[in-house]
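Good morning,

Both structures are done.
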Amino acid sequence: MLSPNQTSTEPPLLSSVPEPPQTPPPGNDIYTVIIRGEEFQLTHAQISFDSPNHFLDCFTSGFLESRERVLRLDRNPSLFALIVDYLSGYPILPLTPDSIPGGMGVTTARRYLLADAQYYRLQRLCSQMTMPSLRTPLGWAGLADEMVNLRDVLASTLPDEVIQQADGSVVSRLSGNPVLIYAQDVSFRIVVRRLTTDSAPNREPSLSLELSVPSGLAESKSSQLHADGGDPIVSMTDFERNGVLHIDGSPHKLSDVFDWCKSPEKSSMTRNLDASLRGTGVYSLTDSSEEISWVDGRYRCLSKVNNREVTYSYWADMALCTFRPARENQVRKNMLVRAKVRSLHRVLDDLDPGLADTL
């Protein structure tokens, strides 16, 4: 035990409990990021630009990086210079040979930059790099000139020029036109439901096209989404005119898909589609029945209700849809514009050309 006049040469023990985050005082909001020995200085506005992210977590955690305001990382310093420009509000895309590190091609630089954006958890930059760009204005088609990622719709992190209205529709703040919503790498299901009763044995089936989003995404506040096993699902019960569904590279008109749902034997086109679906999709069938009773003024009667649900599941490399506002006296619907999907067999082929044939 030390006397009052003695001092210890050992470093003080640090508490395992982090200090509460501190708001930087005015004029003292500089943070240093050291990438392979190269220093970059960021302001609080920069680290908050695309938040939440890795920088904000480190510098507001109450741990060592927050106290020292220094973060050391082993990443590419030349690419980080692009990240700093992005955090400063500059458009850094598309990449050009002049903007990327020497000796690195544009394709490689884009792949590495996306890996860095994912590492730093800069979600908006990730969305910009994975979404196609609109090169032609779409006002003439009744659509907005903006496009958003489905991830941003679910997480309620839409850009300022796009709004999600109370009914769940996603439109341009300026024009009010529906905005194209882009989804990538999600599961895609074609679900045919038929509900019949004794009094209506030939009731027409209904069709919905569903995008199931990985559960790691934030939940949406939209009432048009529901959860299935923890994963948010976007259900579409309508389609855009001339919309197309590509199944393993073969195009099918969405109008044919909906006609097939109502009557698979209607035409040679829908018969071919029926054969394609049954031959490619992961097929599941659910049957259930129940008896419903009710009182109709004078008497009580029973009716047997039969439910049948047939599902064809695929992997969607991309999908475009719209959440359109409701028209007068009509229910609002989510509409599919186009999608490119692959069957399990094709997915396995892409992993290993000989794997699918062995299963």
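Second structure follows.
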Amino acid sequence: MPGLGASLSEAATLKFHKAILSEFLGTAILIIAGCGSVITMDEGRPVSTFTSALTFGMTVAMIVWTFNHLSGAHINPCVTLSFLVTGHISVTKSIGFIIAQCAGAIAGAAVIWELTPPAWRGTLASTVFSDDITLVQGFFIECVSTFILMLGVFACSDQLRTDHGGSMPLTVGFIVFMQSAWAGKTTGCSMNPARTLGPALISGTWDHHWVYWAAPTLGALSGALLYHHVMAVSSADVDVPGGPHVDKFRSTLEVEISEQHAASGTSLLEVKPGFERSPAKHGIDNYAF
């Protein structure tokens, strides 16, 4: 994880500001397209769980496709915290991302509120418990669904794995679809405190609001730590240029490889000023939803 000095230097860069803007816009789009479709698809009447799950999944895929190269497309405080505790992003970037995500969600909900007829708005697709779901059930549904989500996100981000193929954004979108399909009817399957915050603030829907912060955070950190420490491919197990102690290099941290010494079997690792390479243990990149 970058030190304090590097983190403060990072906050002054254009790349950092682009990343913050990306998190704001990405989370706003999540609310506008995801929650907005639930509201407008049938003029304010409830849509099927399948329809809602597919819409959110494809929306997430589009956001990852668009913003991944700038910020990792977290659009979720739980994802950002997970990359923080596993040492892949700085404290400064984490704080900036979470503020941007919450602000984006609120802005997105405000846009929906202003652009839809009053009779259609309802709760702006806020996440709420089903009448038959208890507090304990709801808490663990959100916890488990976010745990599974984070396992998938970290698996997609493991750059040392050689068994992956296909589209990473689409894979993340399908993971969201899978979780929303089984848990959407019960709690709304938020898995994202910012996604819950925006519609709740604008519509005034605060039922069990603390659960949508506490449970996804617990689930996300558990999934991230499990994958990072138990399941992630170690650089010692693969043929990485520079030997077993060189991590898979991260474009999101502005790390460049110079192959000037390729003939001698070594590589020169160059890190641009203001950035530090995280500990070279695993190949987890700062990709995510």
